[in-house]
Amino acid sequence: MSRDHVEAMDWTTLEADLLAAGRSAGPTDQEEARVWARLAAATVTTGAAMTTGTALKVATPAKVGALAAGAKTLIPWVVVAALAGGGALILRHPLAERSPPASSGQPSATSGGVDPAPAVLAPPAALAPPEPPTVAVDDLPRVRVAPVPSPAVGVVISVAPPNRESSLAEESRLVDEARRALGRGEGEEALRLLREGEGTFGWASMLHEEREALTVLALARTHGGAQASARGRAFLEAYPASLYRARVAKVVEASEP
Amino acid sequence: MAELTLEDVYRAHGAFVWRTLRRHGLSELDVEDGCQEVFLVVHRALGEYRGEASLTTWLYTVCRSVARDWRQRAHRRREVLVNPEDVAAQAAPGGGRGAGPTPLSVLEERRRFTLLLTLLEGMGEGPREVFALAELEGLTAREIAAMVGIPEGTVASRLRLARQAFRDGCRRVQAAEAFTEARPPRPVPVGGRVVLG
Known about the structure:
The structure holds two protein chains of two kinds. By secondary structure, chain A is mainly α. Chain A has helices at 13-24, 29-43, 61-69, 164-183, 187-201, 208-222, 224-238, 245-255, and strands spanning 56-58, 79-81, 89-91. Chain A is elongated. The relative contact order of chain A is 0.11. A two-stranded antiparallel sheet of chain B has the order 2-3. In chain B, a hairpin with a 2-residue loop joins β2 (188-190) and β3.
């Protein structure tokens, strides 16, 4: 790392430890997966034919290399979002694509990708997300209690904790496939995958909200308005601040007489 | 011309965005939502990005805007600022969340990061920003000057101030830690009498 006009410091152990923590800090794989799952679902569109995503143009291959160099904290599965109005989304399951961290000489994900004198690009004006609605306590969704089977005497119960990462990867794969099926217009296939995911992982799992939203959209496509509307209303009640609220609400409104 | 997708951006800069938002005041509870906001902005604005500005600079600008909006939405901010006593408690061996001899665990790293954030918070915005970009993100003075929009000389002076503040803060943490370890047991009042615990 070059130090224009600044000298490197001789840090004490505590100082160095804290700085090291500051350099390596980042989301865990699970946190990354959650962000991506929600981001993917928030950007998916249905109805229109799925198209190739708009790609971000970068002038030089060197920049791409620099970005790859920073890919030391990769997500376990990734998303390629297609953008621009009416855009679509392609989800990939990239466990097999997980690229090893390149160019160990890079001190950070950013140092290699910075232009000498870049012009600051103003961020878009509308950054604020919609405010979450206020909900009275009485209006909150009821807690759904999953039935707990009572074990018979003599039954051995495994106490091994589930492998959460692989569970999440499998759960996300099913959501991913359902979303793609929906994008292809295969509503029944999407519903089958969503039912499979719900049966395996249940309502308390990490991607239940995503499955429910996709289910409403798939029902609207396959079983008409009434069923989708009922499911959609239940979704809006259960997830009043959901990112998919607008899309689900649209389905509900469309089915109203 | 090489094409870069949102996937590439997230792979390369997801952790950078996460750290930047944390340093700009988003709590551990809020940072996931903040990251999502940042990448939704990236998602919406990809078509506008033509590569003239550094991607890092652009992301940093978006992060700052998202964090600023977040702070303004005070009702959504669940961050609890850490007071000096808590800093001392966190610095003490086994202190803070995740107590236990797990120095390499994620929790321990998060504890250190929280302590670092506390020290950064005491620096003031200008020095903090320069310090973080120089010492944590590894940017040069020139890069920081372009990113923050200040002269390189100001970068250098702010960095000096910030380094001194960081050093002073670490000394205070160590002093508090030494005090905690050396403090004698506190007398425990029981029924009007004082019993040495």
